[in-house]
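User: Please predict structures.

Assistant: First:
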Amino acid sequence: MKVRIVAVGRPRDRALDALYEDYAARARRLGLEWDSVTVREEAAGGRYSAEHAREREGRALLAARAARGNAIALDGAGGSWSSAALARRLPRWATPCATFLIGGPSGLHPDVPAACDEVWSLSELTLPHELARVVVAEQLYRAMTMLRGVPYHK
């Protein structure tokens, strides 16, 4: 199984980035191939309107998807699943590869969820995109522990 996390913008918060990398490393140790990609965050207000910036980010996210496999957009309008349900979905999604697309501070352009196989809502809360990366990483690690029978999930 393989995952690719594609997010808008380079992480600025070192603590959140370290936590993300820790969960990625843990998941790798359980046999999940892990690839992280960032695409450029477009600044709104100068050359681009907020909508145009989101559109440009959306095109970059979609272009960075894995060549084969499933694309999962992270969006508040998507479905929400328990950790156990995510663990059941992961083998199907991640064979050959699951690409998780995380928007920037302005969210995803509507073209991104429309082009994806699934749309996943982490919560009805609005999360900073850097924290969303950590939540995705932790949940993927948790799913792997459930699939491998490792005592982490309670």
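Second:
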Amino acid sequence: MQWQAYINTGVGVLSILGFAVAYMMISDTLIQSLLKEKQMAIKHQIIISGGSKLAYWLSHYFLDVITHALPAFITCCCVDVFQVDAP
């Protein structure tokens, strides 16, 4: 019974590490796209074309939510499938 607690803790730590790696990969991709966007002055082009700053930032927000929802959903499914019982 005592070993089961250690096993559950190990599985919990591994699942957290997997979740963190997924977010680091996504964050790196988002940062690279923001740097490329800064170099190409896309926000300036959108404002000149008649777009608003609110629409620009809301589109970034919704893209971030959608992009981060996928690993969060997969992690929740994996926790349920593998029956991870760790905080």
